[in-house]
Specification:
Layout lengths: L27 H14 L9 H11 L2 H23 L8 H4 L2 H14 L6 H19 L5 E2 L2 E2 L13 H17 L2 H19 L17 H15 L9 H12 L23 H13 L3 H13 L29 E4 L4 E5 L8 E5 L2 E2 L11 E4 L3 E3 L20 E5 L2 E2 L6 E2 L1 E7 L5 E6 L10 E11 L2 E10 L3 E9 L4 E3 L2 E4 L2 E7 L4 E6 L11 E6 L4 E8 L1
Antiparallel strand pairs: 1-2, 3-4, 4-5, 5-7, 6-11, 7-8, 9-10, 9-16, 12-13, 13-14, 14-15, 15-22, 16-21, 17-18, 18-19, 19-22, 20-21
Helix pairs in contact: 2-3, 2-5, 3-5, 3-6, 5-6, 5-7, 6-7, 7-8, 7-9, 9-11, 10-11, 10-12, 11-12
Length: 549
């Protein structure tokens, strides 16, 4: 396989040879980034400023103050680590299961390499010992040592290429392998970590992440590493499988029609409401730069020029705006998109801001940041009509079944949770004009063989701005099934109908169903607003129609 061959030039063998020729020093983006770094050189660094930012400016200009700042910042990192280990403690790089080792060792590696003429031999020796030990501890947690003390780690995600931590670990390893010209670390990447990663990504047709959307934006780190490895090692990981290119389409379709929010799939830890942010912009800039698919690149450019974030909103991300967004690009034409590898279906009636947009979930559930949302539907038209209650929580990590638009199963008054790892299935039965789609999902596997739930299948039919949901289920006699829908405002209930804002809900089956409303703010103080509509009734089927007034 090509990725196992390291075709490195003499220059690449000893350096992080990242090609920065794309940087336009006449652009507003460059001026903004330079101003951000100049402020730090002047002694007033803005929030989030990193040694990487200083190293970039030294690489781009050759002006000594930038390099000196990068070296000082990394020296501070290493000195702090030495102070901690001298007391028998793990250094900051080990915090939160080494979550931040990627950016920390990237800082060190770029200062070590790009600013190497300003680093003393003694510093290089100390930095190397620190970086080598940090990486050894990440990948071999049971024998981890700091300062001669045995300080084992928990090994979180070191064998899980679907987890965002894995990308941080890989970032640290790749940057340091190249900067230090370490045959051992390069071989480890080539023959072990990168094959594991690329093999996993082939299981994600349609792109995206099984961690959801917020944590899925961590692919921005991975895509950035593709550029580093391409430029230094001559190996194109970005196009070794369809994942990166597919992820462009995934994010285009996961963005709601108003182009300011995205499908709130999984944990939303930064802010609970899924507002587009710099991280999604970075991901698309990297993907656009790397894909060999010209149509996908034009689609990425269209998205970048039409979303609400026209440039990085926080200056500590301004370095990434040096990547070109391209011209206006080409608008999408497809109205239905199925990312089968992550189990997400998206549909919309058109590409105007007034469109109605749908998300339906059924597929693998195997990541800790994913939610018990197998079978969930989300509906948007101008604003959220029906959506996970998690977006109105303070924490953004409400994962339970009750917060999603599914059938809730209860036994003895207790909610039966969905199980992990499990894999539900989805079949697209039919598509038509104006985003019409009919899909059927078998969600029985989501309950891991729990005898209380013998079967649950959900069919959705989306046509002419109407979503019809049919649930067919079989449970034990002591198990109750409740159709539930989470909505922004209090539902007004009349017979078999309910109206919540612009959403009108009609229960077609069972006849005589009872509808009740739950105020989430009275359930848990974590919630700031939101209501849940519960539908109960006899039999083994629900048929519910959702439409917007």
């Amino acid at each position: 396989m090509a990725l196992l061959v390291l075709a490195m030039t003499a220059e690449a063998r000893a350096a992080v040879t990242l090609d920065l020729s794309y940087v336009d020093k006449r652009s507003a983006e460059y001026r903004r980034f330079k101003s951000f770094v100049d402020r730090a050189v002047a002694g007033d660094p803005a929030y989030g400023f990193s040694a990487t930012d200083a190293a970039y400016m030294y690489r781009l200009t050759g002006e000594r103050p930038y390099g000196e700042l990068a070296v000082r910042m990394v020296e501070d990192q290493v000195t702090a680590a030495e102070a901690a280990t001298g007391q028998g403690l793990a250094p900051p790089v080990a915090d939160d299961s080494y979550m931040y080792i990627g950016p920390m060792l990237r800082d060190l590696s770029l200062a070590y390499d790009w600013c190497g003429d300003l680093v003393t031999p003694k510093q290089k020796t100390r930095w190397k010992a620190y970086a080598d030990q940090a990486l050894a501890n990440v990948w071999h947690p049971l024998v981890a040592r700091w300062g001669g003390h045995w300080l084992p780690g928990n090994g979180w995600a070191i064998e899980d290429p679907g987890n965002n931590y894995f990308y941080s670990f890989t970032e640290a390893t790749m940057y340091w392998a190249l900067a230090s010209d370490s045959p051992g670390w390069k071989t480890f990447l080539q023959q072990d970590r990168l094959p594991l990663l690329t093999k996993y990504l082939t299981t994600l047709p349609g792109g995206g992440s099984r961690e959801g959307t917020s944590y899925g934006a961590s692919f921005r780190t991975l895509f950035g590493l593709y550029r580093v490895w391409r430029d230094a090692a001559g190996t194109d990981l970005a196009n070794a499988n369809p994942h990166l290119t597919d992820t462009i389409a995934y994010w285009v379709h996961a963005t709601v029609p108003t182009m300011d929010q995205f499908a709130p799939i999984g944990d939303q830890p930064r802010v609970s409401v899924p507002e587009l942010y710099d991280y999604e912009r970075v991901l698309m800039l990297e993907a656009r730069t790397l894909t060999h698919d010209a149509a996908a690149a034009r689609l990425a450019s269209w998205w970048l020029h039409h979303i609400s974030i026209k440039e990085m909103s926080n200056s500590f991300n301004s370095r990434h705006d040096l990547l070109p967004a391209g011209e206006d690009g080409t608008a999408p034409s497809a109205l239905v998109y199925h990312a089968s590898g992550v189990g997400q279906l998206f549909a919309r009636t058109d590409w105007t801001k007034a469109a109605m947009w749908l998300n339906f979930t059924a597929g693998p559930y195997d990541q800790s940041h994913a939610h018990q949302s197998q079978g969930a539907v989300t509906l948007f038209a101008g604003d959220w009509l029906a959506v996970t209650e998690n977006i109105w929580s303070r924490s953004g990590i409400q994962q339970g079944t009750a917060t999603n638009n599914v059938v809730r199963f209860e036994r003895g008054g207790e909610v039966i949770p969905q199980d992990t790892p499990t894999t539900s299935s989805m079949k697209i039965v039919e598509t038509g004009a104006n985003g019409e789609v009919h899909a059927v999902a078998d969600l029985t596997p989501a309950y891991g063989g729990n005898p209380a739930i013998r079967a649950w299948k959900r069919s959705i039919a989306f046509k002419d701005r109407v979503l019809t949901i049919q649930d067919d289920f079989a449970t034990r006699s002591d198990t109750a099934a409740i159709f539930q829908l989470n909505v922004p405002v209090q539902p007004k209930i009349k017979g078999n109908t309910a109206t919540a804002g612009k959403l009108r809900v009609t229960v077609l089956s069972p006849v005589g169903a009872s509808l009740t409303a739950v105020d989430w703010t009275k359930v848990d103080k974590d919630y700031t607003r939101g209501w849940r509509l519960d539908v109960r009734g006899p039999g083994s089927q629900f048929v519910v129609k959702l439409e917007a007034d």
